[in-house]
Amino acid sequence: MTASTANNTGTFTGSAGEDRNDKPRVYRAEQSAQELISVLLPVRNAAATLDEAMESILSQTWSNLEVLVIDDGSTDASAQIAWQWQTRDPRVQLLANKGVGLVAALQSGAEIARGKFIARMDADDRALPQRLEKQMALLQENERCAVAGTHVRDIGEVGNGRKHYSQWLCSIHNHDDVVRNIFVECPVAHPTLLLRREAFEAVGGYRKVPWAEDYDLVLRLWLQGWRFAIAAEPLLEWRDHPQRLSRSDLRYSPDAFRRCKLHYLLSSPYLRAPRELLLWGAGKEGKWWLKNLPNELRPTAVVEVDPRKIRQRIHGVPVIAPHELGPPQGRFLIVAVGVRGARDDIRPYLKELGWRELDDYVFVC
User: Fold this and answer.
1) Residue 64 and residue 305: Cα distance in Å, rounded?
2) How far apart are CA 13 and CA 4, in angstroms?
3) 275: number of CA atoms within 13 Å, CB side?
4) What is the pLDDT of residue 244?
5) Over the stretch 77-87, which tens digit does the pLDDT of each residue have?
6) Distance between CA atoms of 341 and 351, rounded to whole angstroms?
7) Nearest-angstrom CA–CA distance, 118 and 39
8) pLDDT number for residue 38
9) 183-217 pLDDT, tens per residue?
């Protein structure tokens, strides 16, 4: 994969940005004392929002930045708008990708990034001014901390799925929260990521996989023992819209997320030790896990609250009621209940029985 740098010869033409003040920006005097952050900003047909995104990321209180705008085959004025920003601000570099997808665009930017830290930004979002400064403060507190994310605020027309996901993200406050929820969903919003380049490269950077590239990256960082930090305030405003990849690309489908979780759960410490396995959940989620777990990890029982399913068998596995579960006694439990709010009920119930989260059980949805 190669990426070409757009030049200033007028290759990109059009009216976008022509009425801007073209004077170079003046940066904070302390910029030289700051570490360089390379911001990866892929764009495809985001002319309506790109100006806002660029203004917000270039107005950061952490001013020592390079913003790599990777145009991934836009057919609107996105490239022209980005080129206008490049002519005004020497921190901006426009790269031309050939419309081969987000992962390739991110890889192209990462290959030429010069900073010891890599940040993400989407072309339809807005970063609050202190976003990167507050994230860098978190990373600088702990050398083993590889990733700093932030809470998010929804803007624009927001669907119920995004609304619930944003609310859940804002319940994640620290490394422990990230880890205990890492198989529920991706616990760090992708466009809020700030990463140590050392950690990013150690796990292989972005990869083209049959599921979400950000979740894949976060899970690999976790498996290699890196720590996470969260700025527990909404430092990024993100938009929801029907054209989002997470709505249109099969790599972001529920089934793809399940396959990603299974792949990494099988590589995790939780399932390495030979011990009896149980599953909580006989609904859609639970049945998927029961069907797709390898034969050698076939659960000996399924826990379920629906009285109609208790005493039945699902894929040959007996269904028991929660009161029959008892203490862990060396067993491990996968909790796959997709009902909203179920985790809040199941966690205290298992605690009363002596089950310890991550030692004896893990949530996968």
Assistant:
1) 55
2) 17
3) 16
4) 58
5) 999 999 999 99
6) 17
7) 6
8) 98
9) 999 999 999 999 999 999 999 999 999 999 999 99
Alpha-carbon span 63 to 213, nearest angstrom: 28
CA distance 97 to 78: 13
Separation CA 90–CA 96 (nearest Å)? 17
pLDDT on residue 157: 81
Cα–Cα nearest to 258, from 207, 212, 305: 212
Of 98 and 348, the structure prediction assigns the larger pLDDT to 348
**H/E/C letters for each residue in the chain?**
CCCEECCCCCCCCCCCCCCCCCCCCCCCHHHHHCCCEEEEEEECCCCCCHHHHHHHHHCCCCCCEEEEEEEECCCCCHHHHHHHHHHHCCCEEEEEECCCCHHHHHHHHHHHCCCCEEEECCCCCEECCCHHHHHHHHHHHCCCEEEEEEEEEEECCCCHHHHHHHHHHCCCCCHHHHHHCCCCCCCCCHHHCEEEHHHHHHCCCCCCCCCCHHHHHHHHHHHCCCEEEEEEEEEEEEECCCCCHHHHCHHHCHHHHHHHHHHHHHHCHHHCCCCCEEEECCCHHHHHHHHHCCHHHCCCCEECCCCCCCCCEECCEEEECHHHCCCCCCCEEEECCCCCCHHHHHHHHHHHCCCCECCCEEECC
Three state DSSP letters for 154-172: EECCCCHHHHHHHHHHCCC
CB atoms within 10 A of CB 4: 11
Residues, the chain: 365
Whether 330 has a pLDDT exceeding 50, the answer reads yes
Chain center to CA of 241: 18
Instruction: Choose among 158, 129, 108, 125: nearest CA to 50.
Output: 125
Extract the tokens encoding 116. Answer: 């010891």
- Degrees, nearest 5: CA angle 27-32-38: 80
The answer, yes or no, to whether residue 24 has pLDDT greater than 60, is no
Backbone angles phi, psi at 352, to 5 degrees: -65, -30
What domains can be seen in the chain, in order of their start residue? 32-252 (3.90.550.10), 274-363 (3.40.50.20)
Spatial CB neighbours of 300, under 8 Å, sequence gap ≥ 6: 276, 277, 278, 317
Alpha-carbon span 335 to 219, nearest angstrom: 18
